[in-house]
Design goal:
Helices cover 5% and strands 51% of the residues. The protein is mainly β. The chain has a single domain, classed as Beta Barrel (Porin). Strand 8 and strand 9 form a beta hairpin. The longest helix has 9 residues. The radius of gyration is 17 Å and the shape is globular. The two termini are 31 Å apart.
């Protein structure tokens, strides 16, 4: 049977913005008794833009506290502030997973993060997804705090670039 089934409850997505971030790496806590290593990158700045808003990532407003798991997965836990060109400030809270589709990818990812390489991690080489929430003031941008967002990221020479999609 070739009848196509549609699910009226399947989520749909709408592009909200792309956030481009620059980080400063800090030393890791290695070989933790709970397993893996804990790394942190401090936010040095960045910018964002989308159909309804644009602005900057506020330097020194947060960072990413990554758990480098023993199975090669990087579990992201990031929090930082974004400021829209109109002066509105939002808190971005995100968790996500980053893992390489081959054994060498995460080693390359880390070399780039620490400024030891100018290699590129191509989007097809890595799974880089986030589950994101925003805290926003009541007003024209409060739609950010009323929706779930999914991010699809990539590694850049400066840091990360993540495209956020609003779940409708």
């Amino acid at each position: 049977m070739t009848a196509e089934l549609t699910d009226p409850f399947a989520p749909q997505f709408e592009f909200a913005m792309e956030v481009r971030l620059r980080f400063r790496p800090l030393p890791k806590v290695v070989n933790m008794p709970s397993g893996g290593d804990r790394g942190m990158v401090a936010l040095d700045g960045g910018e964002f833009d989308g159909p309804l808003l644009a602005g900057i990532a506020l330097p020194a407003s947060g960072g990413d506290f990554c758990l480098f798991r023993s199975d090669g997965v990087l579990a992201a836990d990031a929090r930082y502030l974004l400021q829209e060109h109109d002066g509105s400030v939002f808190m971005l809270n995100t968790r996500g997973y980053i893992w390489g589709r081959s054994a060498e990818v995460m080693a390359k990812f880390e070399r780039i993060a620490h400024g030891l390489s100018t290699e590129q991690v191509l989007p097809e080489e890595v799974y880089f997804r986030t589950m994101t929430q925003f805290e926003a003031p009541i007003g024209k941008h409060d739609w950010l705090a009323k929706h779930c967002f999914v991010g699809v990221g990539r590694r850049t020479a400066e840091g990360n670039a993540i495209r956020y999609y609003k779940v409708l």
